[in-house]
Amino acid sequence: MKIGMRKPNLKKRVAARTSLKRQLVHRGGFKMPRGYGWVRDPKRYVYNKVYRRTSFDVFKLLKKLFK
């Protein structure tokens, strides 16, 4: 589990937004309502919740500083 600043990865960032699976889910209307991640995959939901609280993104930090 990563604690502290996250290292930005441009390759993964682009891949996540252009993946075929993402396109099919969003265009097909198979998206679950917000907040229902624990229904789809409880283990990943808990991991992500802890990860988001223990780490931070460089770009969001810069955005807040220069706002």
What does this structure look like?
This protein has five helices and two strands. By secondary structure, it is mostly helical. It has one domain (4-65). A two-stranded parallel sheet has the order 1-2. The protein is extended and about 40 Å long. The model has no long low-confidence stretch (mean pLDDT 82).
How is this structure best summarized?
By secondary structure, this protein is mainly alpha-helical. It has helices at 10-18, 20-28, 37-40, 42-54, 58-65; strands spanning 4-6, 55-57.
| Sheet with most strands: strand arrangement | 1-2
| Residue share in helix | 55-70%
Structural class by secondary-structure content: mainly alpha
Q: Outline the low-pLDDT stretches.
A: none
Number of strands: 2
The share of residues in extended strands comes to 5-15%
Shape: extended
What about the largest sheet? 2 strands, parallel
Tally of individual domains: 1
**Rg calculated over all Cα atoms:** 15 Å
What value does the average pLDDT take? 82
Report the end-to-end length measured between terminal Cα atoms.
30 Å
SSE series: EHHHHEH
- If helices are DSSP runs of H or I spanning 4 or more residues, what is the number of helices? 5
Keywords:
single chain, 67 residues, mainly alpha, 5 helices, extended
